[in-house]
């Protein structure tokens, strides 16, 4: 009997379901965990307001389970914080008190620069979940590429007896990567939010036609974000949705160190993060996101530039 583990924070969407489908195809049993882990949220981050949709999540899991041809969703593990942190209460300060898994320098790069405790929290909670469930395989989404690299490193470095499986990113029709946080985006911010995907695709296209230098590849992405940003700047506050680019990165797939040139064999990870700023003026009649489009929303996405090494 084999078990596939799918760790989530709930507020399930098609991205989560695709992980579960793949896990069911490769294992007899799927364990889904739903736990909003406090230690991966910084003190000023959205822990308390993180979307919680328990009834709908259960409904989605039941529906999915009925249509699985192999395997089944055998358990949903939604532990309390006392179960996950039995000795000391969860601490998301630095250095903080408690038992932590630190995967450095990976955890300090990219997302880690603006979210310094994030990957310590992720690695710690995943280690706990892996130890509790002891799965043959664990499933993570390509959307969170840095997370996939860190989990693979943790499994190797700690000799964990599980196989890490990565599942492609599920997208909305226009290409926006699905995310539980997309509910915060009303119509206006939602439309502009596609800029990151467009920028990454432009950079991928530059690579496809033969560019291999960092400057040339990233320039294609920056051109898209700069253009879209200027377009918004020229609009009136009633109509625009402004954003900031946090980073656009071209990095080594294993170390996530920035590269000057894409190695033909290794390939590279092209990734980015933008912050959709709160709307300056909301109009009556337009469709608002949860929180009335007053919440800044960070969007991340990535594209793999494949090398010949596979
Ligand atoms: P979260 O609940 O956001 O922590 O995500 C739980 C798992 O689902 C993580 O492994 C994510 O990478 C994965 N995931 C989230 N969004 C997507 C998506 N759009 N496509 C594929 N996997 C996703």
From TrEMBL:
<comment type="similarity">
    <text>Belongs to the pantothenate synthetase family.</text>
</comment>
<keyword id="KW-0436">Ligase</keyword>
<dbReference type="GO" id="GO:0015940">
    <property type="term" value="P:pantothenate biosynthetic process"/>
</dbReference>
<dbReference type="InterPro" id="IPR042176">
    <property type="entry name" value="Pantoate_ligase_C"/>
</dbReference>
<keyword id="KW-0566">Pantothenate biosynthesis</keyword>
<protein>
    <recommendedName>
        <fullName>Pantoate--beta-alanine ligase</fullName>
        <ecNumber>6.3.2.1</ecNumber>
    </recommendedName>
</protein>
<dbReference type="InterPro" id="IPR003721">
    <property type="entry name" value="Pantoate_ligase"/>
</dbReference>
<dbReference type="Pfam" id="PF02569">
    <property type="entry name" value="Pantoate_ligase"/>
</dbReference>
<comment type="pathway">
    <text>Cofactor biosynthesis; (R)-pantothenate biosynthesis; (R)-pantothenate from (R)-pantoate and beta-alanine: step 1/1.</text>
</comment>
<keyword id="KW-0067">ATP-binding</keyword>
<keyword id="KW-0547">Nucleotide-binding</keyword>
<dbReference type="GO" id="GO:0005524">
    <property type="term" value="F:ATP binding"/>
</dbReference>
<dbReference type="GO" id="GO:0004592">
    <property type="term" value="F:pantoate-beta-alanine ligase activity"/>
</dbReference>
<dbReference type="InterPro" id="IPR014729">
    <property type="entry name" value="Rossmann-like_a/b/a_fold"/>
</dbReference>
């Amino acid at each position: 009997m084999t078990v596939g583990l799918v760790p989530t924070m709930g507020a399930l969407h098609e991205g989560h379901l695709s992980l579960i489908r793949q896990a069911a195809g490769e294992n007899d049993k799927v364990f889904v965990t739903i736990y909003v882990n406090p230690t991966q949220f910084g003190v000023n981050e959205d822990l308390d307001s993180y979307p919680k949709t328990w009834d709908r999540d259960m409904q989605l899991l039941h529906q999915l389970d009925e249509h699985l041809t192999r395997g089944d969703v055998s358990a949903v593990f939604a532990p309390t914080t006392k179960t996950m942190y039995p000795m000391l209460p969860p601490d998301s300060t630095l250095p903080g008190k408690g038992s932590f898994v630190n995967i450095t320098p990976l955890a300090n790069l990219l997302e880690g620069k603006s979210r310094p405790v994030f990957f310590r929290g992720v690695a710690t909670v995943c280690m706990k979940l892996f130890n509790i469930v002891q799965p043959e395989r664990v499933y993570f989404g390509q959307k969170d590429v840095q997370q996939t690299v860190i989990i693979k490193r943790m499994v190797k470095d700690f000799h964990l007896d599980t196989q890490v499986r990565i599942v492609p990113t599920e997208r909305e029709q226009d290409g926006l990567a699905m995310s539980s946080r997309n509910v915060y985006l009303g119509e206006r911010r939602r439309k502009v939010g596609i800029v990151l995907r467009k920028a990454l695709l432009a950079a991928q296209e530059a690579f496809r036609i033969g560019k291999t230098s960092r400057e040339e590849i990233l320039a294609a992405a920056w051109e898209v974000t700069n253009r879209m940003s200027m377009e918004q700047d020229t609009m009136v506050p009633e109509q625009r949705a402004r954003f900031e680019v946090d980073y656009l990165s071209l990095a080594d797939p294993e170390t996530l160190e920035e590269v000057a040139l894409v190695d033909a064999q290794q390939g590279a990870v092209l990734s980015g993060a933008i912050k959709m700023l709160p709307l300056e003026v909301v109009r009556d009649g337009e469709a608002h996101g949860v929180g009335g489009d007053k919440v800044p929303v960070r969007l991340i996405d990535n594209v793999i530039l494949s090398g010949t090494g596979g």
